[in-house]
Design a protein that fits this description.
- The protein is α+β, with helices and mostly antiparallel strands.
Length: 239
């Protein structure tokens, strides 16, 4: 039974549709082995640039307080109390006392305040962070005042009190990264990730290196090799 022209055309079209993806893949140029590296660098640069352009700038202001020992107290104890008061900067009691002057609730102050102490000097640094420069200075000054007041309540028992060393000033420059810096950092991070991808990805089959091992010699080759060796030994004996 012969097929009609419509049936033959249907079979031909179905075969072409089945083999079209393979022909398309063979027609397209194959990307190089190192393509993840530039792709990751470009993606990281675009992400860093977008963050630098869209993120709101952040400002930081820092105020300082110093622990001072009373007359009858060992001066070395001021250093230990400075470390203790530095840990109390971000406590709920201190932030609750400072929220009125800072103009921020306690929940917001937990992420806007950080403290630093030095192991060599009885100094406490309180840093306030905000999208507004004046607000950052207000937060730092309010929290340092709260710590000083708290230390004054127990200074008769501890023999150590805190005094304000430096007032926080309104910053004039944000600390958040700019758009060029964000793009550079993103490109560097993308390059690092792209390099790691190249290291862990499996290599192509064409990149494998195979060593050629000579096969076993035939009987004729072995006889020829033995005769050559014996002739060489005889020549050496004649000499």
């Amino acid at each position: 039974m012969t097929e009609s022209p419509e049936q033959r055309l249907h079979v031909v079209l179905r075969r072409r549709l089945r083999t079209a993806p393979a022909r398309l893949r063979s027609a397209l140029p194959r990307p190089p082995q190192w393509w993840p590296l530039p792709a990751a660098v470009l993606l990281g640069a675009v992400s860093g640039l977008s963050y630098g352009l869209l993120a709101s700038p952040q400002y930081e202001a820092t105020s300082y307080a110093m622990a001072v020992a009373e007359e009858e107290t060992n001066p070395s104890s001021a250093l230990g109390f400075a470390q203790s008061y530095g840990r109390l900067v971000t406590s709920d009691a201190t932030l609750t006392y400072a929220q009125g002057a800072a103009g921020e609730p306690v929940r917001a102050l937990r992420s806007q305040v950080r403290s630093e102490t030095s192991p060599d000097s009885p100094m406490i640094a309180v840093t306030g962070t905000s999208a507004d420069a004046d607000k950052a200075a207000d937060i730092a000054n309010a929290v340092i005042e709260a710590v000083i007041v708290s230390s004054g309540h127990v200074s008769k028992d501890t023999g150590v009190k805190l005094i304000k060393f430096s007032h926080a000033m309104t910053p004039d420059q944000p600390v958040s990264p700019s758009a060029p810096l964000g793009a550079a950092v993103g490109a560097a991070a993308g390059g690092l990730l792209g390099g790691l991808v190249l290291l862990v990805r499996p290599r192509r089959a064409g990149w494998s290196v195979s060593a050629q091992v000579p096969g076993p010699a035939t009987a004729g080759e072995q006889t020829t090799t033995a005769s050559t060796a014996s002739t060489t030994d005889e020549r050496e004996l004649v000499r």
